[in-house]
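Quick question about two entries, pasted in order.
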Amino acid sequence: MTQQAKPHATLEKWIWILIYGGLFALILGIATGRTDPALGWTIAVPGVVVAVIGFILIFVRSRLKDQP
């Protein structure tokens, strides 16, 4: 795949990294919250924020025009 064939490949890669990383942090925060609630919230909330940023980037990517 060349850069011309898929110009938004880097953005798409970061979208999925942010979504999966954020959801992983959320799950880790929930699991940690059972023994230490403060630490669990400290891990889960940024994870949710990162996942939401990934979902917002999906919307942004859908609005970008592909160049021929």
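Here is the second entry:
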Amino acid sequence: MSEQRENLTYSLFGDAVRELAQAVADDGYEPDIVLSIARGGLFVAGGLGYALDVKNLHVMNVEFYTGVGATLAMPVMLPPVPNVVDLSQKKVLVADDVADTGKTLKLVHDFCAGHVADVRCAVIYEKPQSLVKCEYVWKRTDRWINFPWSVLPPVRKSGEPITPSKEALP
């Protein structure tokens, strides 16, 4: 992986999602469902849903990355896992922010494969080592990506007590 980083801004993200949606439309693919891989894929799926006029959005929670360059041994589906009957015989567009190793996308793609009419993947970024070669990619890179929603630390770590910021106090 390159030491340099891709820096995606919210403004550039809007352009990227719109161009990604245009690639899907230009290909003639009309998904019945956009299946988001949470968390980063939520933003992509929402944008694709609007741009492609698809109101049927689903979410699959998958944990894999635990930090910058740090992962679990294998991705794990977290509850609630979508019911395959909701996907049955549908054309599904799987949306995520990045296909890095491709392990998360492969898990979700394989989950769908035996139950849906067609499954395709759309990502903002795809890295050369990805196990899954996505049908729709905005940009290919070998760099670490700074996404606008994850570049800053959380305002509160999960499990910490909630204390209002000084700005929020009356």
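Reply: The two ends are 47 Å apart (CA to CA). The beta strands are 2-7, 33-38, 57-67, 70-78, 91-99, 118-126, 136-140, 143-146. Hope that helps.
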